Amino acid sequence: MFIAMNRFKIASGKEAEFVAIWRDRETHLHEVPGFREFHLLQGPSNGEYTLFASHSTWDSKDAFEAWTHSEAFRKAHASAGGSKGLYLGPPQFEGFEVVL
């Protein structure tokens, strides 16, 4: 099993807008072999930003990487650049192989 996470620093006051973008978008993940589940996590705030993480679980790293090269990935990320002012920097990717 493989877990893929992206961390996002979202400008204070923009949290609801960020959550709405994720809630309302079509991810196309249901079309992807090896996909198991997705969660959007909200973490601590520090006055400047709130930390969020997207968390997806896959059958394998190969299944996740195949998705990143798929049409479903391109569709899901087609409007990713249209949210200026929400993000304080680019997302930070972290990938994990499940060992236990």
From TrEMBL:
<keyword id="KW-0560">Oxidoreductase</keyword>
<protein>
    <submittedName>
        <fullName>Antibiotic biosynthesis monooxygenase</fullName>
    </submittedName>
</protein>
<dbReference type="InterPro" id="IPR007138">
    <property type="entry name" value="ABM_dom"/>
</dbReference>
<dbReference type="InterPro" id="IPR050404">
    <property type="entry name" value="Heme-degrading_MO"/>
</dbReference>
<dbReference type="InterPro" id="IPR011008">
    <property type="entry name" value="Dimeric_a/b-barrel"/>
</dbReference>
<feature type="domain" description="ABM">
    <location>
        <begin position="2"/>
        <end position="96"/>
    </location>
</feature>
<dbReference type="GO" id="GO:0004497">
    <property type="term" value="F:monooxygenase activity"/>
</dbReference>
<dbReference type="Pfam" id="PF03992">
    <property type="entry name" value="ABM"/>
</dbReference>
<keyword id="KW-0503">Monooxygenase</keyword>
